[in-house]
């Protein structure tokens, strides 16, 4: 890879503007990180997962916990099986060797439901989720081998 200089300028509807200049060895991952960071600063939260190819587990460790949860759901429960918050937290621990607190898992599942990624059923204490059928093909899966 050669050293390059990239300047990213973005603005939002309220005339806020951000300029990021990056000098160094660039690859696709660092360019995506620049754009995601600029969007986050401007309040345009984006996920760098949608439309991406499947992701090796080593690369998933560089993602946010929220994006790792989305990947885990698409990988472990992508066929439409129901799962609970406890199931998610146990799978997260097994896959990433890091604990995901029940409260964090519950919050992320609620957000994913509100964003239309998940269906949910059951009472508040017996809640179960599953990935929506129309979303299954949009989110990549983890490559764990």
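^ Assign residues to that structure.
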């Amino acid at each position: 890879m050669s050293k390059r200089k990239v300047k990213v300028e973005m603005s939002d509807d309220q005339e806020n503007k951000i300029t990021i200049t990056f000098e160094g060895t660039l690859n696709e991952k660092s360019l995506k990180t620049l754009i995601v960071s600029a969007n986050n600063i401007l309040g345009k939260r984006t996920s760098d997962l949608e439309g991406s190819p499947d992701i090796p587990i080593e690369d998933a460790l560089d993602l946010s916990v929220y994006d790792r949860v989305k990947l885990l759901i698409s990988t472990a429960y992508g066929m439409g099986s129901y799962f609970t918050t406890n199931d998610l937290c146990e799978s997260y621990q097994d896959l990433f060797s890091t604990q995901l607190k029940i409260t964090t898992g519950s919050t992320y599942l609620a957000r994913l439901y509100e964003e239309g990624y998940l269906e949910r059923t059951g009472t508040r204490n017996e809640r179960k989720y599953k990935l929506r059928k129309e979303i299954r093909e949009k989110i990549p899966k983890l490559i764990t081998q």
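Residues 55-143 form a domain with the Arc Repressor Mutant, subunit A fold (CATH 1.10.10.10).
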